[in-house]
Amino acid sequence: MTTIDSRFVPVLQPVIAAAREFLRDLEEDEVPAKLKRVAQSSGKRLPPPLAVSLLDEIDKSDWLREKSAAVLSERRIDDAASDAFLNRPEGWWVAVTSAVVDNATKVAEQRMARLEGEIQSFREKARSAKAQAKAAKARLEAVERAAKGEKAAETAPLREALEKERKHAAAVESSRDEVAQRLATAQLEVADLEASRADLYQRFRSVRSERSRLERLIEAGDDSFSREPIALARELDRLSAASAPYRAEQRSSAPPTDRAPTVELPRGVAPDAAEAVDAVIELDPQIVLIDGHNLLGTRDASRIGESQARRELVVAIGRFKRAIGNAEVSVVFDSALAGGRERYCSPDAVIVEFSPPGRTADDVIVERAYGASARRVVVVSNDRDVRERAHLTGALPIWCDALAAWLG
Fold it and tell me: Residue range 92-100: average pLDDT?
C-alpha cells in the first residue's frame, strides 16, 4: 500500500544490496518473474527503474523482506531506515519517509555549498579581470603618449604595439563579461535552490506534524485509520505527497465522469515499463500529456529544482516527440518553480506549459484530458490520483517510470 519511487533508492541502498545478494544465491527458476532483469543485472548499482521495481516487490512480499532482513542481519549492517522498511515496526512508514526527506535536504545543502564555492571563484576571476583591464588601459595610455611625440616613420612599431594592446584589452573585457554572466547565472541557481530548500523544509515540518498526530492516535488506542485498506492507502498517499518538494498539497477533481477509454495498452504490457512507451507509439495517440516535475523526480530527485535539469528534460522528451510523430506532446510543470512563464514550444515541437498561480500541474493535466476526451489521449504520471482521474476521462494513463526508462 506504499508509494515507492526513485527518491527512496539512495536511502534504501542497504535493502537493495541485501535483496540482490539473496537473489544471486537462487537458482534461475526460483527467481520471481518480475525480478528476472534485477537478478541478471551485473552492475555495481542497479539502474533507477530496476531499483524502484525491486523495492516495490520487496514492499509487497513478506517472503522477500524476510530474506533481505536476514542478509542484513548476517552482514551486521545497522541502518534505521532499512530496518524499518524490512521489519515494519509501528510507525515504520513515517520513519522511512523522514529519512527520504533528510537525504533530499542533505543533497540540496551539498549542492548549495558547491554553488557558493563557484560563486566565490567567479568573483575572484572578475576581480582579476578588472585588474588586468586597468593595467591594459594604463599601457595603452603610455603607448599613446609616446606615439604622439615621435615622427610617423619612427612611430610604426609603437602603433603596432598600440593595436596589439587594444586587442588584448578587448579580449580581457570580453572575458570579464563572460565571468560576470556566469556569476549572475550561478546566483540565480542559488536563489532557485534556496526557494526549493525552504519549500522542502516546510514539507518536512508537515511530515513531522503528521507523525506526531499518528503517534497520539496510537497512544490513545484509536486504530480506526488502519482498518480500511482504501482509507489507509489514501492516508499513505497524503503523507508521501507531504514530503514531495515539488507538489502542492491542494488538489481539485475533474468534472464527474466515467468514460470508456479511447486507447488501451496491449495485454501483458506493464504501464511502468519501457515497453509501454513503445506500445503507446504504436497506438498512434493524438495527445500526450506529461507530468513534468513528476518525471524530473523520477529521473533525478536531487535536481528537481534546477532550471537546467528542466531544459535537459524537455530536450530528452524531444526524442520521444520525434518517435511518436504527429501527436501533440505537452509537458506541464508546476508554476512554483517556473519563474513566471506560462507556455512555449521547444525546437523539437514539445509544448512546455506551467500551471497558473494557485493551481497544480495535476489539475491542468486532468482538465486537458477531460476537454479532449473524444480524442486518443495518453497521460504520463507517477501520481496515482492523476492516473485515476485521467482514466475516468477516457485517457490511457502510464507511469513516468516507463518514459524515464525509455529515454534511457
Answer: 91
